[in-house]
């Protein structure tokens, strides 16, 4: 999912690795923190695949991308035409990773560029993940009532169950809104 996140951000414009990491934290920070140890190998892989490239420099050899005082040797990256095509394909054909905790947040942040049918597939896939999680949590909460566990452990399990149920309600609202938006004749 880091590939999708990086391509999505570079679709907004060229960025240095430092700026990419900062934007990843701003956009996806509640989901996970991206280390330079995972970002730079991803950038090299995407560049090797021809999906991103070094942004052009001016005739003076300076980058056209502001460095924000982060040093002179920072290499800015930008999306290539192949990268734009790959991004569009990734958004149109979401993988099962788009339904996970990390993947869903990345894909959700790119919903404005995701085709309607793919948005609905992502939301429905996320709903299935949450329903399975909720059932596991219900089972654990029921089992815990009869076991000798800490009341705090039980409360933590109930919090997880409540969180899953709340997210399921939200997902169901988003699905209903998508279905209404995609098929307005259902409201007539």
UniProtKB/TrEMBL annotation:
SUPFAM superfamilies, per the entry: Winged helix' DNA-binding domain
GO MF terms, alphabetically ordered: DNA binding
Pfam families linked to this entry: PadR
Presence of the UniProt keyword DNA-binding in the record: yes
Key words of the record: DNA-binding
Boundaries of every Transcription regulator PadR N-terminal domain copy: 6-89
Keyword Hydrolase: no
Residue numbers spanned by region Disordered: 55-77
Domain of life where this protein originates: Bacteria
Signal peptide span: none
UniProt name for this protein: Putative DNA-binding protein YwzG
Protein species of origin: Dietzia timorensis
